[in-house]
Design brief:
This protein is an alpha+beta fold. It has helices at residues 4-7, 87-111, 136-151, 163-166, 228-247, 252-292, 307-320, 350-357, 382-392; strands at residues 2-3, 13-24, 27-32, 34-35, 49-51, 54-62, 65-70, 80-85, 115-120, 125-129, 157-162, 180-186, 190-193, 208-216, 219-226, 297-303, 325-331, 335-342, 364-368, 371-377. The protein has three domains: 2-85, Elongation Factor Tu (Ef-tu), domain 3 (Beta Barrel); 91-235, Threonyl-tRNA Synthetase, Chain A, domain 2 (2-Layer Sandwich), CATH 3.30.980.10; 274-392, Roll (Diaminopimelate Epimerase, Chain A, domain 1), CATH 3.10.310.
Length: 393
């Protein structure tokens, strides 16, 4: 099979003879006499596109043949196909992969930090570096040097040769193959065995931006973006900042402190609101106990109150009514939520009470012996549920 992506990585349209239409555990696939579709390999994802306008959703090299997995089966009697590569995806992968070569070269040559793995993701790219940590000064130096190499627009060359011939070059790491090997060469920058697609010059990478690093086992994982991804991220961040400045009318340099101040102020207000709500619940609890006139069971039904509010109210009531049982129910749209409790003068496990009434609402619940909460489906009216609870008490 002729691999057109090695001959011309910019070739996005091609015609080829169909050798076989088949199927495996991944789905339907097509084998072609020649292809411009790059298969997954070496940390670089596969191309996408179409064959006779049928979507190619995956491309893998299996047993020496490139399988083009299609969204639907190509007619078995098809002799030739017109192939079309998703150009944006291909160019993006070329930019990211070439950018990785330059980054790895600078880390290795200038700072003796080799790259151990590479992953080209949908939004960002990562490399694992054999180092315990990276400081800001080092990252700034590497990023500047990488972008200088990009701006100098070095040629990016690819050559097929024997392993013996390749050994004449200053390779960054030993070759792991026998026979012929493909070298990607950026003169005086990088010499590396690689099967990926690359642009013809470093200038096409456009720019590299480091996005941060994390510890990964005994190494570090550096995240970055190249080319159009940098522009996309810049555009997205600019839109967010523009929207933020409409909400918080401050210069960009003061936005972080202003937002932090707003958050601090909001937390103070939230705490004050919570304290006021707690006081209101205490007043409400006293009113409820006063109205109950020493009744054995205190019962209230509410609409739309949260379980958290029922719990707070229930605790306040029990502090004021040590002699009583408590039934609090909140009716939601299609649910019933409840709190069942008793005061300190009563000795009864309310979990046993809840266990007997929960099947009525196909519910779940539990808690301490003197205070349980739960909920379930609104299979019966709240007042009927309350009556069933009282029958169990």
């Amino acid at each position: 099979m002729r691999k057109l992506y090695y001959i011309d990585p910019y070739k996005m349209e091609f015609e080829s003879q169909v050798m076989r239409v088949d199927q495996d555990e991944r789905g339907y696939y097509v084998i072609l006499k020649e292809t411009a579709f790059y298969p997954t390999g070496g940390g670089q994802p596969h191309d996408t596109g179409t064959l006779n306008e049928i979507e190619v959703i995956d491309v893998e090299e299996v047993d020496g043949e490139v399988r083009h997995y299609t969204e639907e089966k190509l007619d078995s009697d098809t002799e030739y196909v017109q192939g079309s590569i998703n150009q944006d995806r291909r160019i993006d992968h070329m930019q990211q992969h070439c950018g990785q070569h330059i980054i790895s070269a600078v880390f290795d040559d200038q700072f003796n930090i080799p790259t151990t793995s590479f992953h080209l993701g949908k939004k960002t790219v990562t490399i694992d570096l054999n180092a315990e940590a990276l400081d800001d000064d080092l990252l700034q130096q590497v990023e500047q040097q990488v972008n200088q190499i990009i701006r100098r627009n070095h040629p990016v060359e690819t050559k097929w040769m024997s392993v013996e011939e390749a050994a004449e070059y200053p390779l960054r790491k030993p070759l792991a193959v026998n026979g012929e090997v493909r070298l990607v060469i950026i003169p005086n920058v990088d010499y590396n065995g690689c099967g990926g697609t690359h642009p013809s010059s470093t200038g096409e990478v456009m720019a590299v931006k480091f996005l941060g690093w994390t510890k990964n086992k005994k190494q570090v994982r550096l995240e970055f973006a190249c080319g159009y991804r940098v522009l996309d991220m810049l555009g997205q961040k600019h839109r967010i900042l523009t929207e933020m400045k409409q909400i918080v009318p401050k210069p960009e340099g003061e936005l972080v402190e202003e937002v932090n101040e707003l958050i601090r102020s909001s937390r103070k207000k939230d705490k004050k609101m919570a304290d006021l709500e707690e006081q209101l619940l205490q007043y409400e609890a006293r009113d409820i106990v006063s109205e109950s006139q020493d009744n054995r069971v205190i019962q209230r039904i509410y609409e739309g109150r949260s379980i958290k509010m029922l719990q707070s109210l229930g605790k306040s009531i029990m502090e004021e009514a040590p002699h009583a049982y408590l039934i609090l129910i909140s009716e939601q749209k299609d649910q019933l939520q409840f709190v069942l409790a008793h005061g300190s003068d009563i000795d009864r496990n309310m979990n046993e009470v809840a266990k007997q009434v929960l099947p009525l609402i196909e519910g779940k619940g539990g808690g301490k012996p003197n205070f349980v909460q739960g909920g379930g489906k609104k299979n019966i009216h709240a007042d009927v549920f309350a009556d069933r609870v009282k029958n169990v008490l």
